[in-house]
Amino acid sequence: MLVDTARHFIPLDKLKQLVDGLSAMKFNVLHLHLTDAQSFPFEVSSYKELSGKGAFDPNHAVYTHDDMSALIEHARSRGMVVMPEFDLPGHTASWGLGYPGVTASCWDYLNAHQPDYPENGMALNPADSRTFPIVDAIVADAASVFASCAYVNVGGDEVDHGCWQNAPQHEAITTWMQQNNVANFSQLEAYFTRYAQEAVVKNKKTPMVWEDAFTVGGALPESIIGIWRSKEKLAEVVHSGRKALLLYGYYQDMEAPLCTQSLECPECTVNWLWIWTYVDMYGNDPIADLNLSQEEADLVLGGEAAMWSESVDVLSWDVRGLTRSPAVAERLWSDASVTDRNWLELRVDRFRCISVRRGVSGAGPLYSDYCTPPEKEPEEDEIEWLAIAALALLAICVALLLALVLVSVKLVLVWRRARSLGYAQVQGEGDK
Hints:
Radius of gyration: 32 Å
Number of helices: 17
Strand content: 5-15%
Distance between the termini: 107 Å
Order of helices and strands: EHEHHEHHHEHHHEHEHEHHEEHHHH
Structural class: alpha/beta
Helix content: 40-55%
Number of strands: 9
Strand order of the largest sheet: 4-5-6-7-8
């Protein structure tokens, strides 16, 4: 499951809860899309300003290395691996906040040509002397912190060549291209992705990239290719002898998950209910109808659900990201002949209720059912007030007990004095 922590920061405790919920569905990899145009919430040892100025909040919205180590151990104990992703050379506007100049400043072009999320089109500037050393430092930290994972994802998707063409640094960029035998912007895109993948290999990890890197000829032979646009692209990749992973059709943020190109494509189905998109995901077998040889089919490593978080945060993540993902998990773990959606609904609703009652999921139902939620545990401040009230009550009881003891002692003393006086009086009468 891809979890996007750059568009909305996901606190460590929430990530651990997601691991609990996802591992119960047999998801075995937590793919952290750590950085993007909107923020850079990962601490890089030798370039502190990446998160110092690139995070939404440098004090509360940054993952330290210790944070990630704690998450990795939590995931390991539940059978999951945590894989980091640092998207480049596009989707890097946040890098330039800490180190101005490492991105091509093409804001005027982007605002005019990309009405939706224009910041995503910002690309790295190859002519700045700090750009490639920063890439090296990020990959080195990723390989060290995520040592238990064999992979590091370096992105490579949606690079807008117009940013390089229209940036104020255009002349410096083209001069750098001439000096490095880069003929055009497609080759520049490929140069960046190859450089990042080679850095991953130098750190003894296997690179993973998006299909865009393959399309421009920038994918290394050993890199795993993430397919997000079509199953035809999956077939093309494995025909070339490369390993691939299917994300197409499994995007949890989409209401038409098979419509990555346009709403007019033949596969597109816009459902009456948003929740019914689980049916599209359930029917999306990674290798069905592709006519792959057994050797090619073996290169398809599996599939991956993805929850992009432009409109999702900690308050809505579970309903958006965990409600339909069981359909993806079952599709990927089950035989291709298992396709009964009605039977799936019943089992997923029961599974969802159990998960909710265990406190590992806030997913919604696929169908009508009755699920009693767990009893609400007291909040931390409620526990604090209860403790204070208990201590106060204890203090009152101790005070009452002390008062009772004092009164009892006094009564005993009075009684003994009265008895003593009575004895003395009797003794005096006897003497007479």
